[in-house]
Design goal:
Largest sheet: 6 strands, mixed
Radius of gyration: 37 Å
Strand order of the largest sheet: 6-7-8-3-9-10
Distance between the termini: 73 Å
Number of domains: 3
CATH architecture of the largest domain: Up-down Bundle
Strand content: 5-15%
Length: 611
């Protein structure tokens, strides 16, 4: 696109990073992009027809100007003058109306394509495995979902339409110019190289300056963010570094100011030079036209033709400059689609099998058969996990931090898939089960309770959308959260805030437990579910959890000894295997890993609970 002063601005150049990551243009990539445009080809056809019509109608005011000079003014015909002026006004009006129509259809097409792509992306991301969300940065996901897909709008309504519009304007203008006077048309086109060469050279210099300015500006913003934040300003004060930070800021500010002034100066002089070159074309046409009329006595050439040629040549310069950026705009458009397609091409290895099994899980054993798993192939986490949780029993899993306790239980609802061995429920491999059925029958209460930014009712209904008020109240009574909700002015319609920040840790946890109670799962997983509760809160809901686990096959990961002691069996995970297994007294007598955990963690917590 033309930059300030009519030349090529910074957008006319690719950054070094863009050059390095320039997408490879393939037939497959182009066809894939076209697949999103194809459903709207009738609307695209209307847009292109509107652009062509607008470009053609846009010629008329310049041509009519020539007739005004030759016929109305020279012929002193007032009636014709008014008629031609009205005709010029009418063509301008028609051109504007066509432009509005084109803009409306363009906007409709681009928004519909964005609608389609966002729906596809959201559906795709919803079904990506849990590992995707633990490895990808949340900011990157949001950028692809919003900024990148929204950027498609500028490609459709900006880049694509601009290219077609500029080509149509150049072609129609050249046809009109050579039809009126091929000699003057050639004279006018002599100036074009003078517009292109300096634009490329000076524009590249300005681009480098702008890049340096932006880098320095980012450095300043980083400093402001660090030193004027709550934590940063406290650190500055405690180390008495105010004067040092001020000196750093002044130096940064001075360098930034110098770069901005340099960039602005180059832009002003560039504008002056380009303005002179732009005016040179009409001056040459006037000279050539005058010479043809005066010296050569060319009767076919009129003053009106010269005037119309000048108007058309001015109409020609800007689209030609803009078309020089086709390569850059095209590359950036492809890069945008490539980023989006990178996400679409990410495969989800955890999918439900066709006709997946739906076994009765009411009285189902949980069986781990020599299970192996790792997040990093070079660092195995689980190597040979082998145990069985009998139906209706509650097993506790303990182990040092980082031993893989949570990973063990995450294999049941297939948040991850085993790399070796298998996990079965009721004798059926979880990978052979219908995924929706599996997850609907597994209830999980995690250490960090997550609530959506809505009401208490909304968060509870997430487990069972058709739950009655009586069912909600029953679940909350069991989780010992009903009395708290009842005391709130809005009751169950109380807003919990973003991520439940308006609630305490214990309240959030109890609400999460109530949500699982509503789900009524056959298999229950408690991943340190009472760790966020104080001893009073834990005691209040411990009985509720026991009632919830009654008749269900359960696995509990806990740091509190009071929870572990209620387990039917304790499994100790260390070194990728079940290192020890048994009840509390048996494991203590072995003087192994469990004894060490008891001495360093459990007993200390137990003593704190009884203070």
């Amino acid at each position: 696109m033309p930059g300030p002063g009519g030349g090529l601005g910074p957008r006319g150049f690719l950054t070094e990073e863009e050059k390095k990551n320039r997408p490879k243009i393939t037939k497959g990539l182009l066809l894939r992009i076209l697949s999103y445009l194809r459903p709207y080809w009738p609307q695209f056809l209307l847009v292109f027809l509107a652009i062509l019509l607008s470009a053609t109608v846009g010629l008329l005011p310049s041509i009519i100007t020539g007739r005004i000079v030759d016929e109305a003014l020279v012929g002193r015909d007032m009636k014709l003058l008014i008629t031609l002026l009205l005709a010029a006004f009418a063509t301008l009006t028609v051109s504007q109306v066509i432009g509005v129509l084109e803009s409306y259809i363009n906007a409709w097409i681009s928004q519909r394509i964005i609608f389609d792509m966002k729906n596809q992306m959201y559906d795709h991301l919803q079904h990506m495995p849990h590992a995707f969300f633990t490895s990808e940065r949340q900011g990157d996901i949001i950028t692809r979902m919003n900024s990148d897909i929204s950027g498609v709008s500028s490609v459709i309504s900006g880049t694509l339409s601009s290219i077609v519009s500029n080509i149509a304007t150049v072609v129609t203008s050249l046809v009109a110019l050579f039809t009126m006077s091929w000699q003057l048309a050639l004279v006018g086109m002599v100036v074009i190289p003078l517009l292109i060469i300096p634009s490329r050279s000076v524009g590249q210099t300005r681009w480098k300056l702008l890049t340096q300015t932006q880098a320095k500006n980012d450095e300043m913003n980083q400093m402001i963010n660090e030193t004027l934040s709550v934590s940063g300003s406290l650190l500055v004060k405690l180390f008495a570094r105010e004067e040092r930070e001020y000196a750093r800021f002044v130096a940064l500010n001075e360098e930034l100011t110098r770069l901005k002034l340099k960039e602005q100066r180059s832009g002003k002089w560039f504008g002056v030079v380009m303005g002179m070159f732009t005016q040179l074309g009409p001056l040459l046409i006037y000279f050539a036209g005058g010479w043809l009329i005066i010296a050569r006595s060319d009767a076919s050439l009129t003053v009106g033709t010269i005037t119309a040629t000048v108007a058309l040549i001015n109409r020609l310069y800007r689209p030609i400059q803009s078309l020089l950026n086709i390569g850059v705009d095209f590359t950036r458009s492809l890069a945008l689609f490539t980023r989006i397609f990178e996400y679409f091409d990410m495969k989800n290895p955890i999918v439900s099998k066709d006709n997946g099994k739906k076994p009765d899980l009411k009285r189902a054993d949980i069986r781990y058969e020599h299970v192996a798993f790792s997040y990093d192939p070079e660092k195995p986490l689980l190597t040979d996990i082998d145990f069985t949780v009998p139906a209706g029993k509650m097993y506790a899993i303990v182990g040092p931090s980082g031993s893989g306790k949570s990973t063990v239980v995450n294999l049941i609802p297939r948040l991850y898939d085993v790399l070796g061995g298998r996990v079965t429920l009721g004798g059926v491999d979880v990978r052979d089960m219908d995924l929706r059925y599996l997850r609907s029958n597994v209830g999980v209460v995690t250490q960090e309770s997550y609530l959506f930014n809505g009401s208490i009712r909304d968060n509870l209904l997430y487990a069972k959308p058709d739950a009655t008020d009586a069912e909600l109240e029953r679940a909350c009574r069991i989780a010992n959260i009903h009395s708290y909700i009842e005391n709130q002015p809005a009751g169950y319609d109380t807003m919990v805030g973003n991520r439940g920040l308006k609630l305490s840790g214990g309240e959030k946890q109890r609400l999460s437990i109530a949500r699982v109670i509503l789900k009524d799962p056959r298999i229950l997983i408690l991943d340190e579910a009472t760790s966020a509760l104080d001893s009073i809160s834990e005691s209040a809901i411990q009985e509720a959890l026991e009632r919830l686990m009654e008749g269900r096959t359960s696995i509990v990961i806990a740091h509190r000894l009071s929870t572990i002691l209620k387990a039917d069996r304790i499994l100790v995970v260390q070194g990728g295997v079940i290192a020890e297994s048994g009840d509390h007294e048996t494991l203590l007598a072995q003087n192994g890993v469990y004894r060490e955990l008891y001495e360093t963690q459990f007993r200390t917590i137990l003593e704190m609970e009884h203070k």
